[in-house]
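## Example record

The block below lists the input lines for one assembly entry, exactly as stored, with component labels intact.
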Amino acid sequence: MGGFPTVTDVALAAGVSRQTVSNVMNSPGIVRADTRERVEAAIKELGYRPHASARRLRTRRSSTIGIRLDPMIDGISGSVLDRFLHALTEQADAQGLRVLLFTATSPEDEITQFRRLNDGADVDGFVLTSTFAGDPRTRWLIENGISFVTFGRPWGVDDMNDPQHLWVDVDGWSGLQDATRAQQEAGARRIAYIGWPSPSGTGDERRRGWYDAMTLRGDVSASDLARLEVVTTDGVSQGTAAMQRLRQQAGQVDAVLCASDSLALGAMIANPERVPVTGYDNTPVAAAIGLSSIDQAVDEVAAGVLELLTGEFGGKVHGAPESDEPRHRLIAPRLVVREFAAIPMDVAR
Amino acid sequence: MGGFPTVTDVALAAGVSRQTVSNVMNSPGIVRADTRERVEAAIKELGYRPHASARRLRTRRSSTIGIRLDPMIDGISGSVLDRFLHALTEQADAQGLRVLLFTATSPEDEITQFRRLNDGADVDGFVLTSTFAGDPRTRWLIENGISFVTFGRPWGVDDMNDPQHLWVDVDGWSGLQDATRAQQEAGARRIAYIGWPSPSGTGDERRRGWYDAMTLRGDVSASDLARLEVVTTDGVSQGTAAMQRLRQQAGQVDAVLCASDSLALGAMIANPERVPVTGYDNTPVAAAIGLSSIDQAVDEVAAGVLELLTGEFGGKVHGAPESDEPRHRLIAPRLVVREFAAIPMDVAR
DNA sequence: TGAATATATTTGATCGATCAAACTTTTCTT
DNA sequence: AAGAAAAGTTTGATCGATCAAATATATTCA
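Predicted structure tokens for the full assembly:
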């Protein structure tokens, strides 16, 4: 006996036609109950599985979403995207969606991949990560009417009310606001912030969360507040340097918030006074070291992405039905508090 | 003008038949040069892309490999698999192969997924990670004649010469041997090892690497050697505890080798004397902290996996052509030496 | 040159499912 | 109970590519 059973085999076994078998699988509602049962029994008995490629050829949809696997950047923060990928795959699976990976060396190359995957009916839509202002990829996808959702807001004009595409993002502002408040409630007054140089969409947002919470409380003068801030690029050693600079310029510091776990880890290294340090991303490193951190809630992000991709808008803003549904999801991150019992570090030599 | 151009459109434009167009794409050698050029021009002009699903339906192959995205374990060592995934995707892409992800909650569930993906012609084969002795998944795949390669050796009888399936693994023995030798050459004599309880395929292998190098050198007595070894389960805090135990039972220690970066990180925490510590996996944490570590060379593993999957054996041992080619690849890991300048740590309180 | 061989190209059938429309059976209406 | 409407089921065509076999063209050799 040749290969696997097909619809025709099932139909024959159940004494119905191909189409009825197809209906049982795709629109069970329109098949009479007793017929349906008969067909289902036949499917089970023969161990029938629909041939995905044949279905795709006909329906022109693949139940697959494509996502680019970004090159590992520094490895530490990179793990957020990996966790997102895990969450996305898990939740997509639960909805019968598949996740197809691809890589690309540049935005242009990525567009080539978009075209290939889309033309070949390999995927129904894409999930984009690491978007940036003026991203050519989103423009191309919009122009070609391809479904997609980004993890990361467009950072354009009025992206809340009139976004050019669907997006999900984590509210860094609220994350840092929460972290600042938590320290304030624990009795800290002089709370410092180590962040990235402006302009940086996410970076500016996080800084503003700290800044707003500090000015709202109002117990630190404006000039002191300026001294409590250090700007640097991302990285562990940069964090160490920033911490040292902070100690010089700010005098006493009750707590330190950082724009990333890399910076936070670096800050911890130059932290003999054991000032509480809070990172961002809640990476494995933070967990291992016992560092408080702001968790991006990647599972909620993944859920939001899938909702937008498969929901009312079908992954599109242009050409989608009129609706008052929001075209984005802004996820509030969770502050994970840890007592950093295990790691008192001294400055090297 | 409806959708995308098809072979027929291209054929019409080039003044040839469908099949010739197909030949240009799949066996260019049998098409006369001038015809080929004409067809290629038409393809380019029309922007033709083959419809992947249609091709798969006909050829019964998908140019896609499936891999399960394991649930994150502790996050630190988990990143090895993520790095492997990156490497695999990148190299698969270069060969025109796609990588499809899926998740599963148990080996049985995973088998269900195997069946679904295979029956639906979604994938041509699988890559398995985290295999274990008596793994039901490999048995099922063999029984069903499905192509696959494992990252991780079978740990069965004579898996070198008569493996039940194709595999790629990293030679932990040689990794620890190298690390031990490196310390010996740097002047260390009393080199300790913190490892996992036996039986553990990988764990025992790594331990043996240290043990063999130590006995070969022969400058440490057998009883001392026993005192230089601590056995514990994996984890950061276990590493710290192990290091403390080691100090008590072994007296002076010149260097410490660990079965994982988690253990190594833990060991570093209880390491005021700044004894050199070497981990395993070369995770981002090791890089960030400045910890020597043994790198699993995931890119070579990925290359090996693809070679076995697409090569002579086609991902199968049974039913594959007779051949003297090895049915596995044993990759030598690379020792990455770091001066841990930045992190002298004290024991907490 | 003409038959024999090798090379190049075309035609018809097919992969397995779903769509669209035709057909049959059941249910509702008056 | 007859006709209309609704519900359920079947048939033929189709998605886009490749296979297998047939046909056309070019090359070789006696």
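Residues 7-50 of chain B form a domain with the 434 Repressor (Amino-terminal Domain) fold (CATH 1.10.260.40). Chain B has three domains: 7-50, 64-164+298-330, 172-296.
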